[in-house]
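Internal tracking record. Fields below are filled automatically when a chain is submitted to the structure queue. Please do not edit lines marked as system-generated. If the sequence contains nonstandard residues, flag them in the REMARKS field before resubmitting.
Queue: standard
Priority: normal
Entity type: single polypeptide chain
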Amino acid sequence: MALGQKIKTFSNSLLKSLTSPSYYSDVIKAPFSFSVKYFVALAILSSIILTLITTFQVAPKMRNDINNFLKQVVAQYPANLVLTMKSAKLSINQTTPYIVPFPKDLQQDKQTKQFKNLLVIAPNGTVGDLDKYKTMILVNSSNVLVKNQEEKLETYSLKQFPDGSFSKATLLQYLQKLQPMITLVVVVVSVAIFLFILLYNLVFRSIYLVIPAFIFWGVAKARSFELTFKQAVQIAAHAITLPILAECVFEAINFQIPLPLWYFFVHVIFGVVIIVVLSQNSKVHTTSNSAPTSANQ
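SYSTEM-GENERATED OUTPUT FOLLOWS
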């Protein structure tokens, strides 16, 4: 079947699953694989819709947060400080030790409040100077010493850095080159959101279908309507169209329903209505078939 025909078949099934309880008589007559394919297509469609909605809601704030962070980095870098690397040795154009206090507008948690300074550059600095200057980071002529939040010491050699100079102007150039990466970050986050929602829909909700299917099967039994459990699952797989699309609409308008388990209740009520319609249609069909027989008698 061509892709265009598959899309047309899915669209037709989606519309009827949403608006025509009588359509479900065709659903339970169709192969189980038909309902499986429909559910998978519906899961993909809803995942795409919810991803787009979430991305449009989150992306602007994400961009602003990243740009504000980068601006803060630039603002905190001393205007006259020039770092020079040569033969794996660091030197600066300022008097040492050069101290960078923890920025007042940088929120510190309980573990980082022990530090008075964020960075100290001291060519002859040692491990003991971390406590002396109450700093999180100490840079000497050949190493970067960092005391992490668990108060464990981490050491990084300056040998991994190439020769050259680094200033505030250099920092601005690097950050300008990072701007296109912000878009990439948004794309990566969007893909991750899509995969998470899709996995949730395909795994969790496919398992969840068993619960309303069992209820539908019980209602059918109570109404003496012949329905296998597999057919009840098919009805559940198509009836979930209503709460899934409702969820997409509510997310789009940023409306939170204050009713717990509303999704489940909408699904079950819609499914029960379908069972009632099917059972009534079945009784009418049975009566119409038996009427001529009774008249002949």
